[in-house]
Amino acid sequence: MNSDTKTVSVNRDVKAELRRQADELRCEYARRGTLIVNVLSSPGSGKTSLLEATAKHWAGQQRMAVLVGDLATDRDAQRLAPFCPVEQLTTGGACHLEIPLVKQGLEKLGTTVFDFLFIENVGNLVCPASHDLAEHLRVCLLSVTEGDDKPGKYPKMFRTSQAMVISKTDLLQHVPFSPEAAIDDARQIQPEIKTLSVCSLTGTGIAEWCRFLEEQRNAMLAQAATAGETINV
Ligand SMILES: Nc1nc2c(ncn2[C@@H]2O[C@H](COP(=O)(O)OP(=O)(O)OP(=O)(O)O)[C@@H](O)[C@H]2O)c(=O)[nH]1
Ligand SMILES: [Mg+2]
């Protein structure tokens, strides 16, 4: 070792610090009455399309905003901007979002209070599963063109999600995908997982999806009220 080199030991657990920051934000946004939803899936499964359809369905009824993560470009933010406040989080090549970038996005969104804050993660069925983004609800999309065997092949993604949304159901007639097989496979990993089906292009299933989200938010508000929190809704 070069005599000028110094060894510095880092005793702080970086992951524990990120978890602490995520927990702090989760509590803060529950107090604000904002349900944070982390939306994950492989590339092109229909995350942005689902959020566009959600914003159109709720227009004037629920206040929503989106933080959208991508390796490069602000294309998804441009698609969502006509419908709701949105901030693009560009990872510069990283395959998933982490809490510091999410915090930057939240700061850019400012102090406006939203009922729902969606985080569209980078398209990837592996790494995003390992990162807590302060969400109250984690949702994983599985499009019918990907195959009904994917939950078992990417177990962490489905084990850590509270809901699985089967997307692009209009294509079911063209591909060998069994929704029952996909649901069975997901339930082997996560017996409690809620399952929904949508076609964002036609709007089929969007009302049920939105109702599910509203129920989740109501449950969060009720839990916060039971805990004696002052909720700003
Ligand atoms: N047939 C059909 N196509 C869809 C549906 N939803 C989305 N698509 C198409 O699938 C492609 C990808 O959709 P996106 O919404 O961009 O998917 P994404 O998951 O946001 O993609 P990334 O952000 O790149 O990971 C687009 O060409 C959409 O038009 C659907 O319900 N049915
Ligand atoms: Mg997208």
3D structure, described in words:
The protein is of the alpha/beta class and 233 residues long. The protein is built from 8 helices and 7 strands, in the order αβαβαβαββααβαβα. α2 packs across α8 (206-226). The model has no long low-confidence stretch (mean pLDDT 94). The structure holds guanosine-5'-triphosphate and magnesium ion (MG). Residues 41, 43-49, 76, 123, 167-168, 170-171, 199-201 line the site of guanosine-5'-triphosphate.
List the main descriptive attributes of the protein structure presented here.
binds magnesium ion; Rossmann fold; 38% helix; binds guanosine-5'-triphosphate
In short:
The protein has helices at 14-32, 47-58, 75-80, 99-109, 150-153, 155-159, 179-189, 206-226; strands spanning 35-40, 64-70, 86-90, 116-120, 137-143, 163-167, 194-197. It is α/β, with parallel strands linked by helices.
Terminal Cα separation, in Å?
A: 59 Å
Radius of gyration: 19 Å
Which ligands are bound? guanosine-5'-triphosphate, magnesium ion
The CATH homologous superfamily is termed P-loop containing nucleotide triphosphate hydrolases
Secondary structural class:
alpha/beta
Residues in β-strands, percent: 15-25%
Low-pLDDT residue spans: none
